[in-house]
Amino acid sequence: MGELLQYAKRRADSLRGDNVTKTTYDAKPGTHLQLWLLVFAVVFPIAVAVIVSTKQTGVVTSLGDLLPGSYAVENYREALVDYQFGRFMWNSLAMSVVIVVGKLVVSVFAAMAIVYYRVPYKDLVFLFILFTLLLPVPVRFIPLFQLMNDLGWSNTILAITVPYIASATTVFILRQHFLSIPTSIVETAKLDGVGPLRFMLFVLIPMSKGVLVGVSIIMFVYAWNQYLWPLIIIDSEANQVAQVGLQLLQGDVQGGQLSWSLVMAGSTLTLLPPLLLMIVFRKPLLETFSIQQK
Amino acid sequence: MTTVTLQNLRKEFDDVVAVNGIDLEINHGEFLVIVGPSGCGKSTTLRLLAGLESTTDGRIEMNGQDVTTVEPKDRNVAMVFQNYALYPHMTGRRNITFGMKSSGDFTDEEIDRRVTEAADTLDIADLLDRKPDAMSGGERQRVALGRAIVRDPDAFLMDEPLSNLDAKLRIQMRAELARLHSTLETTTVYVTHDQTEAMTLGERVVVMNDGQIMQVDEPQVLYDFPANRFVAEFIGDPAMNMIPVEIQDGRAVHETFEIPLPSGTDQLKSNQNGVGDVQVIDGQRAILGIRPEDLHLSDAQTDGQLPTINAEVNVREPLGDSLLLHCSIGSTSCNIQAEPRTQVTAGETVSVTYDPARLHLFDAETGEALYHSESRQSTSEQAPSKLST
């Protein structure tokens, strides 16, 4: 069966005029089936969410209910305008952008210091930075809550952004990338008397564009999906972010009127910005996180 | 005027000694080549000169001023790297001007004028608007050279600049470098592992091994009068044959042959042709050095009076312009560069003779040169060498 498929593939290639002798990967017939199953498993819940968001009540009890409804415009309008979901999305966007920019600035400086400067106990410092990976933000909630209150930052954008700005992951990825830049380029700059800031702006950052974009996307998605911390530290509805705002769409739950279609409309909306970014920047993203043969 | 002086220069990396106390004087406008095998400390020496490494000990002077602890940018030297080190996101022009603009010592008009000049000198005007991606290896190296020369530095430091180029281009660039140096007359220190490059480019060549200088001399002198076994084997391709012998009464005695050392024992003893203070004593074990091109297949008519050596041919390598024979003389293996188209087959025993003016003796233990059959004076006077057997 496998051989037959291989033959058919080669035949098709030759008909298309491709080079017949090129190496083809020995894909077993089951592989595609597995891939499709996996894709289905990932996409199905999202597809259901999108379908439900177009229905009036949004209760799915049979397969027949999985046909798109006609209340899409009505539902999305209600979520964005009546429930101010647009406002939450805007807050989320502001939070994510501040976190991404802050992280990049801090991490570029940190990685540059770690890679290019002779600092005493440099490796120990880097190890300590990596060590912070073992302490995720939720572990630090209680002291952080106290600190934010003491600083008077609670209920502001500072509270949901500043604690996230230091990033061991970003420092690590950038460090690895900076190390891959040939030392002779750095040394040429040294001999030419190029100052550190000028070196960073005109050499390091342009040479790291791909990695910086890739890291930014990951950081954006991570920031965008923050839920627990904003829920704790932000208590005014006007400053709340989209992930927390979703539960406000549930409507009058006590009255037994849990509006699933509205919740799903909100979920679909929150999904869009990261999805768009992923689609637009998929190339640098893959380059950043794939193993490269050099 | 740029002279560079290294005094007892030493560099250690943890417990590895990369450069072990070298003294060197580089003259103004000189093209000095440092050559040696991998890990001999040649690149480290260059990097110490550039200031990219800090010295462990010793002193570097430029024009009489101590620059040992001076920052690289304040030494006014330009370096050319093996991998060109061009900024990949900048055009040729920006690559050349970036450093000058950063230092802030030049006006825009000055920069433009110098770039035009350098572009003319190196013939790279059409590369200025291209990025390195769109240049070939040779073009990239030319732009890198352009970047070095626009600043009009006191010295060029070149770290194997031609090693990434293919053989043909390397020869072409080699000639271009020589031309560039004769135009600019800037003091140049050039590091390479390729002895052909060293011989063709260098006005003087420094041979290094294990962090130490083995010999500093003009290329032909290095070739004709190697100071020790290392230099003798390193310079010249194919390498010099090293045959263990014993000295007896002015003759080099091997298990299968014995040949007289021209100028005889008396002169050996009086050290006329010997090197430095070394003395050759009868019965001393030594290494006889003969270059493959100084051995040839014996011809009864012309070489009548010369002793012959029997050698068994193991492998023949026709090189076109010559025929290289890998032979064994007794238990010693040895290469012979024979005339091309010579009819010799592997397994055959051939009778070999040698050029008596081109024999070398090295100490069996220390490897120091004991004797060259021709004295340095006689070569400089172009006197024909005499055979005194």
Automatic annotation (TrEMBL), chain A:
Gene3D superfamilies the UniProt entry points to: MetI-like (1.10.3720.10)
Membrane topology: Multi-pass membrane protein
The UniProt record lists the keyword Transmembrane helix: yes
Chief location category: membrane
Phylogenetic classification of the source organism: Archaea, Methanobacteriati, Methanobacteriota, Stenosarchaea group, Halobacteria
Family: Belongs to the binding-protein-dependent transport system permease family.
Subcellular locations according to the entry: Cell membrane
Record bears the keyword Magnesium: no
Residues of the ABC transmembrane type-1 domain: 89-281
Coiled-coil positions: none
GO biological process: transmembrane transport
PROSITE patterns: ABC_TM1
Protein name in UniProt: Glycerol-3-phosphate ABC transporter permease
This protein's UniProt keywords: Cell membrane, Membrane, Transmembrane, Transmembrane helix, Transport
Domain of life, source organism: Archaea
GO CC annotations, alphabetized: plasma membrane
Transmembrane segments: 35-54, 93-117, 124-145, 157-178, 199-224, 258-281
InterPro entries: MetI-like (IPR000515), MetI-like_sf (IPR035906)
SUPFAM superfamilies: MetI-like (SSF161098)
Organism whose genome encodes this protein: Halorubrum persicum
Pfam families cross-referenced by the UniProt entry: BPD_transp_1
UniProtKB/TrEMBL annotation, chain B:
Bilayer topology annotation: Peripheral membrane protein
Alphabetical UniProt keywords: ATP-binding, Cell membrane, Membrane, Nucleotide-binding, Translocase, Transport
Catalytic activity, as annotated: D-xylose(out) + ATP + H2O = D-xylose(in) + ADP + phosphate + H(+); L-arabinose(out) + ATP + H2O = L-arabinose(in) + ADP + phosphate + H(+)
First-level EC class: translocase
GO MF: ABC-type transporter activity; ATP binding; ATP hydrolysis activity
EC code: 7.5.2.13
GO biological process terms held by the UniProt record: carbohydrate transport
Regions of compositional bias (Polar residues) in chain numbering: 376-389
Superkingdom of this protein's organism: Archaea
Location relative to the cell: Cell membrane
Leader sequence residues: none
GO annotation, cellular component aspect: ATP-binding cassette (ABC) transporter complex, substrate-binding subunit-containing
SUPFAM superfamilies membership: MOP-like, P-loop containing nucleoside triphosphate hydrolases
Region (Disordered): 370-389
All residue ranges annotated as the ABC transporter domain in the record: 4-235
PANTHER family from the UniProt entry: MALTODEXTRIN IMPORT ATP-BINDING PROTEIN MSMX, TREHALOSE IMPORT ATP-BINDING PROTEIN SUGC
Family statement: Belongs to the ABC transporter superfamily. Carbohydrate uptake transporter-1 (CUT1) (TC 3.A.1.1) family.
General function of this protein: Part of the ABC transporter complex XacGHIJK involved in the uptake of xylose and arabinose. Responsible for energy coupling to the transport system.
Summary of subunit composition and partner proteins: The complex is composed of two ATP-binding proteins (XacJ and XacK), two transmembrane proteins (XacH and XacI) and a solute-binding protein (XacG).
Protein name, as recorded: ABC-type D-xylose/L-arabinose transporter
Species this protein is from: Halorubrum persicum
